[in-house]
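Task 17 of the worksheet. Students: predict the tertiary structure of the chain below and write it out as structure tokens. Keep your answer in the requested format; marks are given for formatting as well as content.
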Amino acid sequence: MKLVNREIDKNGTGSVTLIAEEAEDMWHAYNLVQVGDALKSTTIRKVQNETATGSVSVHKVRTTLTIRVETIDYDTQACVLRVKGRNIRENQYVKMGAYHTLDLEQNRPFTLGKHEWDSVCLERIDNACDVTQHADVAAVVMQEGIAHVCLVTSSMTLVRAKIETNIPRKRKGMCDQHMKGLHRFYDQIIQAILRHVNFDIVKCAIIASPGFVKDQFADYMFQQAVKLDQKMLTDNRSKFILVHSSSGFKHSLKEVLCDPSLTSKLADTKAAGEVKALDDFYQMLQFDPDRAYYGVRHVEKAAELQAIVTLLISDELFRSKDLTERKRYVRLVDTVRENGGDVKIFSSLHVSGEQLGQLSGVCAILRFPMQDTEDSDED
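Model answer:
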């Protein structure tokens, strides 16, 4: 994300002009744009002209519109943010109050204005514009007959390819059929890696599977790379790491990212930090439940007593259409930080963020044990 201009006064009112330079930046834009904001961007509008004879001609014009945001739709596949609202600035082609949909795309500047820029939004801009935040990871999670090729960015897990193949079973006298089926399956995964993984950005490529499937695949892949002179694979051989997973499905990525052998490679990625924080919370919930709280009311009471050492919160909560509810979560984040606690904002499109969402979206690891406040809530 590129920051072009920033005009925010001491009261938090103002606007920023940004350019989304890559796919992940559109996710940041989705989290920044909220209902009620003013959004300015270039767009194409159909204009009707009626002549004196009554004939009507329609042509398209490029113009700049400013709308008051009413609905937001994010297309993860096309990486396009569609924002609908009413026009709030004079324009020669569009009447005041007329509805229009702006499509925010990569490399197209947009200006976002808010009545109040809170600390969470400002932090997201700082992180999105920080080059060091883009340490990405690729992962192939597989078992015989099924594989998922994923890109694990700092904000989300994207499944770029899902490969399913029927492999003949290994039977007496049919070993050749089994091996041919297996090699066809491996070739499809190799093609998916070459198509979707950019090794200029990716610093680590994980191959994970139950048993020895990962080892057999890795051996076959590098043999083929040498045979077919695929330099993209041979030159980046050192980036591949083989780890164990329980299955070849996307949810196995969480346990893969927890693997100690990956720690050194992933130490500076946000994804690994989130997964470790969630794993620590589960450990605390199991062995010391009085120091593990979830649910917004319980966590807020712990924050009031300055008991929170780590707050885990989903970014989905900050996209609430209810301004009061949104401010409630921002206030919780600010309170924890003021008291010296660490705040982990999880992406709802990341594997760990999906699991946090199942736990109400708000969890906390406490400095000291607190008795369950459920009884006092009922009173």
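Marker's comment: The chain has twelve helices and 16 strands. Residues 375-379 have pLDDT under 50 and may be disordered.
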